[in-house]
Design a protein that fits this description.
Elements lengths: L19 E3 L8 E4 L5 E6 L8 H14 L2 E5 L9 H5 L8 H7 L2 H18 L2 E7 L1 H9 L10 E5 L6 H6 L5 E8 L5 H13 L4 E10 L2 H4 L5 H23 L4
Parallel strand pairs: 3-4, 3-5, 5-6, 6-7, 7-8
Antiparallel strand pairs: 1-2, 2-4
Length: about 250
């Protein structure tokens, strides 16, 4: 298996995404794709900043290049995006967050997400999924026993909208969890339930703990803050290793 110097580099937050937009069977029929190999694919489900957020696309580029896979970032929000300036300022009074989440609820988006995963499964030998925040519940659903064989491995980064039932049902494939220490969405109770349940169910899992950082640090941490920069780099490296293990080594 080949390696390169890029495997040790951090994020290029000030870079330009190198992928392209293609038609894809989602609500808005589009996805960002960045490719490095034809034998394995990863579906990346972003947080509420959406599929076209530069950090997400740069992260997809890193995963594609370093894990040697093709990464798809579909638009699961039907072309809608939240005002990023307000999000970054946490000016939630300026945002119809409730309406946005209602329009992109689990019940509405799950059929589309499953359809995308099935499409990738039909086209690639190995398939993985990674989801941050909103995308966290998604990958646990893809790992559910009822969908066995849909994906070969998943990664959940600071998941939100996750339920204990999602965790209970996630028995179909290896799971990596990337969990910041401070997280109101992925609570200490849910973290404990994840660890105990996956262990009880005999699921192969990797629990990555990120001390001293908060929810969203893996995709929107500041590169100027050493702990946040370190979390972003460590999270990216852990994801690369996980995908290389299950999508590349596992295919050999």
């Amino acid at each position: 298996m080949s390696t390169s110097a890029c495997c040790t580099k951090g994020f290029e937050w000030d870079g330009a995404p190198s992928g392209r937009t293609i038609p894809f069977p989602t609500a808005s029929n589009q996805a960002y794709i960045t490719a490095s190999a034809a034998d394995a694919a990863v579906m990346l489900i972003p947080d509420l900043f959406g599929w076209d957020y530069p950090n997400i696309r740069l992260l997809a580029d890193h995963l594609a290049r370093e894990a040697e896979v093709t990464v798809y970032v579909p638009d699961f929000f039907n072309g809608e995006s939240l005002p990023r300036d307000a999000l970054e300022r946490m000016a939630f009074a300026e945002i119809d967050l409730h309406g946005f989440v209602s329009r992109n609820s689990r019940a509405i988006r799950e059929p589309e997400i499953l359809a995308c995963a099935r499409k990738l499964r039909a086209e690639y030998g190995r398939v993985g999924a990674i989801g941050y925040c909103y995308g966290g519940w998604v990958v646990f659903r893809l790992a559910a026993g009822e969908f066995a064989g849909m994906v070969d491995c998943v990664i959940a980064g600071h998941p939100s909208l996750l339920t204990k039932e999602d965790i209970d049902n996630a028995t179909a494939c290896p799971i990596q969890i990337q969990a910041p220490e401070v997280d109101e969405a992925y609570t200490a109770e849910l973290k404990r339930h994840t660890f105990e349940t996956l262990q009880k169910n005999g699921v192969l899992f990797d629990y990555q703990h990120f001390p001293g950082v908060e929810h969203s640090c893996l995709t929107r941490g500041s590169p100027k803050v050493p702990m946040e920069r370190g979390a972003m780099e460590r999270g990216k490296d852990a994801a690369v290793d996980w995908f290389r293990m299950w999508l590349k080594k596992g295919a050999e």
